[in-house]
Amino acid sequence: MSKVIIIEDNPQNARMAAKLLRHAGHEVITAEDGEHGLTTIFENPPDVILVDLGLPDLDGQTVVALLRQQDTLKQTPIVAFTAWPESTAHAMAQAYGCDGVITKPIDTRNFAQQVSNFATGAKRRE
Amino acid sequence: MNAKRMTEYVQQYDVDLEASIVSLNHEQEVTGLCMIAFRDTRAWITRLGVVPERRLHKNGQFLMETVLETARQRGIQRVQLEVIQGNEPARNLFLKLGFQDVQELLIIRRPPGAPNPELTPFTATFNPIPHTDIPNYLSQRTERTTWLDENRSLLNTGGLKGFSTQLDSSEKGWAILQNTPFQLTHLVFSPNLSANAAQALLHYIHQQNPMQDAKIENLSTNSPYWHSYQKLGYFEVFRRTEMHLRLS
Fold it and tell me: CB distance B2–A62 less than 8 Å?
């Protein structure tokens, strides 16, 4: 079981993702914007971070950039969680230092496994 | 967008909340939003949005026609907006209402990081522009601007900083930008700035702010500085099309 934070402003998407991950045994925290996401992560570091790149206000790329500057999160997988076209999402994720991309709408059959794979990959690196 | 940011947005872009509207369904739930801003005889439409289940029901058209009627009543001569490329339903609605394409715009980003020192082989001096002088510098601008980066938007913005430069080659100019706690944005250059001076200024700005993410919205695809931005590590995220409608 891993602790996963989902930073996602669309409540329906956040609810669906959280439900699937909880069903798979993960502990899930959701944050509706970048500022709350950062505060939650700093207070309670997770094992995997899912960030919607299209967040309002403090947008997803800036959140990723700020997280990547934290030494304590160097080993934590940060995954771009986005409805952007796949090529744009991958280019952006790579430029900002994400460990991968999960595109929306999510594939409900594989989503939890995709997230678990990021958590497992991080544990292997430790 | 949270309430604090929305308040800033309304103030920064002169959004008129009296003229901006929401649509409601029979249960009094919000189904759509359209905001409009006014400056002299111009208006800007922003944040047009309809909840997914109300799309294809002419909800967007109703919102647009309502704010356009308000604009007519106020004597507005030109309405402008930007639409994200690929949003065909919105673009088709704007075309149906008589809007015409004006220019193609880039949204570009640069992740944090110090610039490569080899990228600027120019010897130059840099000086901060006193905050009180920033309006005078901005008044020198002559390029076509969009609502987001016209001087009135910039002057409504907090956290503006400016730098002037002079290269050994005698090329000179300035850059003004907004420096928020997390991001560099709203960057504009002096008129007729050389590509070398633009590159030197960008290099200096990122050297001074290596931990800052950068985002430039609505850079014209014809901008002479796009190449300088690219050299400093900026890349295109997506494009918008600016569209105008003449009301009189």
Answer: no
Contact: A95, B5; criterion CB under 8 Å: no
pLDDT in tens, B196-213: 999 999 999 999 999 889
Chain A residues closer than 8 Å to B215 by CB: 59, 61-62
Contact B46, B6 (CB under 8 A): no
Q: Is the pTM of this model over 0.90?
A: no
Judged by a CB distance cut-off of 8 A, whether residue A121 touches chain B is no
Question: 3-state DSSP call for residue B30?
Answer: strand
**DSSP conformational letter for B65:** H
Locate the DSSP E strands across chain B: 21-24, 30-39, 42-50, 78-84, 100-110, 124-129, 160-167, 172-179, 183-189, 213-220, 235-246
ipTM of the complex, rounded to two decimals? 0.71
Place of tokens 């308040």: B7
Task: Pick A88's closest partner by Cβ from B1, B2, B238.
Answer: B238
